[in-house]
Amino acid sequence: MPESPTVPAARPTPSAVPELSAEDAKLVVLARGARGRVGAVEGAAVRDQDGRTYAAASVALPSLTLTALQLAVASAVAAGATRLEAAVVVTEASTLDGAGHAAVRDLAADAPIHVAAPDGTVLGTVLQ
């Protein structure tokens, strides 16, 4: 699938691990649950401007491929979200995928995107 011009060419690398708030820690739990329920490659969760949360797993079909973060953002937007406060991706990768990063940045230029390992250990945070 070719990347659109809005997707960063480089994969953002998480920075140092910050202390997570209780609300951001909840996102890690939700993302792990979404990933585990279907045995997906990735799980993600986002929190919107009203504190509502949306969790999703990656989708890989012959006609549709979405990262977990893209689907979580799409679910939030479909429910009326106009801004995101935070996002989490649970993955085995050490970097954040460009498409998921771009989807979050469409709604929030400054929301932290925490990247966590499958066991829930936060590996770092992308702030830009």
Question: Keywords, please?
Answer:
128 residues, 5-stranded mixed sheet, two-stranded antiparallel ribbon, 3 helices, 7 strands, 24% strand
Summarize the topology:
Blueprint: H1 22-38, E1 43-48, E2 53-57, E3 59-60, E4 65-66, H2 68-78, E5 84-90, H3 98-107, E6 113-116, E7 122-126
Parallel strand pairs: 5-6
Antiparallel strand pairs: 1-2, 1-5, 3-4, 6-7
Return the string of H and E elements. Answer: HEEEEHEHEE
Unreliable runs, pLDDT <50, ≥5 residues? 1-11
Indicate the radius of gyration in whole angstroms: 13 Å
Helix percentage: 25-40%
Could you tell me the mean pLDDT? Answer: 88
* Strand numbers in spatial order across the main sheet: 2-1-5-6-7
Account of the 3D structure:
- The protein is of the alpha+beta class and 128 residues long.
- The protein is built from three helices and seven strands.
- The strands form two sheets. The chain has a five-stranded mixed β-sheet with strand order 2-1-5-6-7. Strands 3-4 form a two-stranded antiparallel ribbon.
- The longest helix is centred in the N-terminal third of the chain and has 17 residues, at 22-38.
- It starts with 21 loop residues before the first helix and ends with a strand.
